[in-house]
Amino acid sequence: MKQTWEPSQDGVLVLPSGRSIRGRGLHYPLPAGPLPEFGLYLLGKRPARVEWESRWLVWPDLRLPADPQDARDAFREAWLRAESERVEVACWRGIGRTGTALACIAILDGVPPGKAVSYVRRQYRPWTVETPWQRRFVARFRAEGP
């Protein structure tokens, strides 16, 4: 049975395909409602353990992922799992790294790279993808290839 987020829940990004992914900040309390089934955590140090399956992507605050290929693989895994599972993507505040990852996931879902940041800003948080290098990372991200 398909277990995805309700579009009206705080932080939920609905992609053009209908998949939904929740973005959030780990600094804040866990939102009320159902728990994630998979979490992708974007932090410079190992995140705290959670009750659900998760993946850690090494990504220091205000920077880019330490390993771009690992990032691509992690984004693809989150996107694939979001078809039938409750997936969350989170960093410390849920803005820069989370928004950057969500924009890349939107590209995997068919949003053109040049429109992914504005798509995520409209659908998720207006201030997301904080730095010029995060915006460039998204603009250069491709659904396929290195």
Automatic annotation (TrEMBL):
Pfam families: Y_phosphatase (PF00102)
Molecular function GO terms recorded: protein tyrosine phosphatase activity
Entries under Gene3D superfamilies matching the protein: Protein tyrosine phosphatase superfamily
Domain (Tyrosine specific protein phosphatases) ranges: 66-136
Superkingdom of the source species: Bacteria
Protein name per its UniProtKB record: Protein-tyrosine phosphatase
Organism: Arthrobacter oryzae
